[in-house]
Amino acid sequence: DKVIRVVPESERETQILRAAFNRLKVDLWQPSSPFHIVEGTVADVRVPQNATRSLLPYLQQANIQYTILISDLQEAIENQTGGRSHRNRRSLSGYNYEVYHSLEEIADWMHYLNRTYSDLVHMFSVGKSYEGRPLYILKLGKRSRPYKKAVWIDCGIHAREWIGPAFCQWFVKEALQTYQTDPDMRKMLTQLYFYIMPVFNVDGYHFSWTNDRFWRKTRSKNMRFHCHGVDANRNWKVKWCDEGASLHPCDDTYCGPFPESEPEVKAVAHFLRKHRKQIKAYLSFHAYAQMLLYPYSYKYATIPNFNCVESAAYNAVNALQSAYGVRYRYGPASSTLYVSSGSSMDWAYKNGIPYAFAFELRDTGHFGFLLPETLIKPTCTETMLAVKNITLHLLKKCH
């Protein structure tokens, strides 16, 4: 298998690519559906070995330029996770935040923190996944007063985006390790609660470890088609199954049979609805594109509190860049990335959470979903600066 990049240079090329990708059922990495392929923007495609022989000559014949991003995908997968076998992964006190962890390891780690940091950490579950796994949340913060504002953070809505859950774990580590020494962190944990969901799509994430590294959706079964899963970021009750979502159960952007059909989405939506007076920010972590997005996703329109949100985004992106010079684009999701309906970020915003953001973490396609473990630390370090920046912005009044 290979990953190739194509940038259509005309309407003709756009149509040819959409048709070819639809026909061959390739795995689109960027954008998420053939529908979003437009002239002048990047399309990254995973081409299975058996399709390589038909697709690449076809593109050459059509005179469409492409570059090979990853020439041997299996080798890249093995390189991503390094030598797994010989490192000590069970010890929780020496938990390694610079490697990717399986779902089981992440759950063990959460239980460990719950026992060890009972003054700052409270672990609970908001429900069960389609396959019956608990949906764990860590509530982080000093129990300084009964009512505090809160920030929600989720990672891993899309299973294959492993850097997301790695960041959620990193955030918790940083909060606990720097609480005593960093006045900003102290202020954040004293004045706010953080609800952190390290792995939103638990079934899909598990499946991406055991069966298919590039699985994206949930794992619910569809009776009529022999396809599994729904795109958990197209399943929310906001302009559900409109532009940018698919009605076909086999597609990567399938919106589901109805809004909140996925137990994971339903459970989180229920929790957020219940706490919407308290929760002031919703942050969701995805990959890859190096972007910081805010509403709307489903339409080209300006949100009412645009100035506050836009300045928070601008400052966050600058803070992020200060670490390693990595540049993030920022703006409304619809115009910065593409139009998509039924997203968690739009839903959170529509349900009264004034600051709703989706991060698209590193990189811009060189590694794609296979960001090597060596890049976990720099990615999380810079992202941490952005998240702290947004959180501190939240504590100040914005007019």
TrEMBL record:
Pfam families: Peptidase_M14, Propep_M14. GO terms for biological process: proteolysis. Residues 99-394 form the Peptidase M14 domain. SUPFAM superfamilies: Protease propeptides/inhibitors (SSF54897), Zn-dependent exopeptidases (SSF53187). The active site is at E360. GO terms for molecular function: metallocarboxypeptidase activity; zinc ion binding. GO terms for cellular component: extracellular space. Keywords: Carboxypeptidase, Disulfide bond, Hydrolase, Metal-binding, Metalloprotease, Protease, Signal, Zinc. Belongs to the peptidase M14 family. This is CBPA6 Carboxypeptidase. It comes from Leptocoma aspasia. The lineage of its organism: Eukaryota, Metazoa, Chordata, Craniata, Vertebrata. The gene is Cpa6.
